[in-house]
Amino acid sequence: MPVPHVIVLRAPGTNCDVETAHAFEHCGARATPVHLFRVLERPDILKDFQILCIPGGFSYGDDVGAGVIFGGQLRSRLGGALREFLQADKLVLGICNGFQVLMKSGILPAGAERWPATDGDPPDATLTWNDNGRYTARWVKLHTGDSRSVFLQGIGAIDLPIAHAEGKVVARNDDIVNEWRKRGQIALCYQHDDNPNGSTADIAGLADPTGRVLGLMPHPERNMYATQHPHWTRRPQDSDEGDGMKLFRNAVEYFG
Q1: Is 96 a catalytic residue?
Q2: Phi and psi at residue 214, in whole multiples of 5°?
Q3: Bridge-based pairing state of the strands 136-143 and 186-190
Q4: How far lies 210's CA from each of 43, 55, 94, 107, 157, in Å?
Q5: Among this protein's residues, is 192 annotated catalytic?
Q6: Please, which residues have CB within 8 angstroms of residue 14's CB and are 6 or more apart in sequence?
Q7: The whole model's pTM is what?
Q8: Domain tally, the chain
Q9: pLDDT of 124-177, one tens digit each?
Q10: Domain of 238?
Q11: 66: CATH
């Protein structure tokens, strides 16, 4: 099977790049953490990779909003290179702060269809503060529904941890959410009675219409092994794998 090469794109304040790279490597990919500044210097470096992953953390300290500065740099300085990447048969994954970056840059929810958008176009959706007004870190139960996401194939229900303050998905209107449903873009949802941030339609992750771009607030790289789950001693021990493993394996096997 061909070995896909993953660029784990980090910026000042990113803090989940090492474990995210490990997750891809464990599933058979070659993962290389690369600083955003190196890509800004040479955008054509993206041609060397088949998967782009933006991991979690607090890029630029979330000083003007989570993912805003990082997303603005992608939009204003890497528009051409990223559009070419998005239009190719390649994958993009944004985890937590990475999801925020994909949303703030405008890559999600439309993917390559309307990216980069002109400055006058209003965004279809954003990620904003949790309803409780504070950073929240705990485990949640999720389901995938009818998602077209490459990353979530064969996954029905999944337990993952969250760790965020600005994870609430808010759409401009109900028509947008209905369109997401029709196009299979609602990739991941919180269990209805366990929505930790008040996200519209319990949305925890969004895909683009092709299914090749995924952004999610929970951290799959933090549940790669069964023993990482807080209730692991009370769960069936039929596998040493955690729920997050399949997501990374799906990405690698897409290129098989």
Answers
A1: yes
A2: -135, 135
A3: antiparallel
A4: 24, 21, 15, 12, 22
A5: no
A6: 55, 56, 57, 58, 59, 97
A7: 0.97
A8: 1
A9: 999 999 999 999 999 999 999 778 899 999 999 999 999 999 999 999 999 999
A10: 5-117+124-253
A11: 3.40.50.880
